[in-house]
Amino acid sequence: MQVFTFFCVEPDGSVPRFDVAPYADDQAARQRAFELIDMHHRCDMIEVWRGSKRIFDVPARRVAAA
């Protein structure tokens, strides 16, 4: 298991919430990031870190206004 940190980045660049949890691999952590971005509608993206290394970002899936 590896420990991942998930940062919720809001539109103003602030990070009001984060989550730390162990996952077997990057793919499992990516799945969790998608769950978090769906739960936290104010987030523009979830930054995913393993230790001091930023692994990837998951952007919010916004519906374009008509």
Outline:
This protein has 66 residues and is of the alpha+beta class. The chain has one helix spanning 26-39; strands spanning 2-9, 17-23, 45-50, 53-59.
Structure description:
- This protein is α+β, with helices and mostly antiparallel strands and 66 residues long.
- It has one domain (2-59).
- The protein has one helix at residues 26-39, and strands at 2-9, 17-23, 45-50, 53-59.
- The chain has a four-stranded antiparallel β-sheet with strand order 2-1-3-4, covered by helices on one side.
- The longest helix is centred in the middle third of the chain and has 14 residues, at 26-39.
- It is globular.
- The model has no long low-confidence stretch (mean pLDDT 92).
Which keywords apply here?
single chain, 66 residues, alpha+beta, 4-stranded antiparallel β-sheet, 1 helix, 42% strand
Topology record:
Blueprint: E1 2-9, E2 17-23, H1 26-39, E3 45-50, E4 53-59
Antiparallel strand pairs: 1-2, 1-3, 3-4
Kindly state the percentage of residues in helix. 10-25%
Radius of gyration, in Å, reads 12 Å
Low-confidence stretches: none
Strand content: 35-45%
- Encode the helix/strand succession as letters: EEHEE
Average pLDDT, rounded to a whole number, is 92
